[in-house]
Amino acid sequence: MSSEVNTLTHRDESVGKKYPLIIERLLFLSACIGFYFLYPYALDLKEGIIGSLAAWCGLPLLLLMCVELLGRAVQSLHSSGD
């Protein structure tokens, strides 16, 4: 390997702390478990197609948005700790 800088902006970058990826995996796992337990409640919200859409589309999207926001908060806290 050469000792040239390989970044697009030609800057030196140092290796930082290891990111706690296990936290995001646990958040995603909790969303999957939450979907399993919240699915019947979302399905009973409305009868027919609206209930099905809420249970199969709305609930997973809501849970994934919550996981994403929590993951970004963890990332922000982790990067501000430098």
Task: Tell me about this structure.
The chain has 82 residues and is mostly helical. The chain has one domain (21-80). Helices cover 67% and strands 0% of the residues. Helix 1 (21-43) runs antiparallel to helix 2. It is elongated and about 65 Å long. It starts with 20 loop residues before the first helix and ends with a helix.
The oligomerization state is single chain
By DSSP (H or I, 4+ residues per run), the number of helices equals 2
Secondary-structure-based class equals mainly alpha
Largest sheet, strands/sense/barrel = none
Average of the residue pLDDT scores: 85
Uncertain segments: none
Mind telling me the C-alpha Rg? 20 Å
Q: Give helix and strand order, one letter per element, not per position.
A: HH
Strand content: under 5%
What best-fitting shape do the alpha-carbon axes yield? Answer: elongated
Alpha-carbon distance between the two ends = 29 Å
Number of strands: 0
* Helical fraction: 55-70%
Short description:
This protein is mostly helical and 82 residues long. The chain is built from two helices and no strands. It starts with 20 loop residues before the first helix and ends with a helix.
Name its key features.
82 residues, 67% helix, mainly alpha, single chain, 0% strand, 2 helices
List the helices and strands and how they pair.
Elements: H1 21-43, H2 49-80
Helix pairs in contact: 1-2
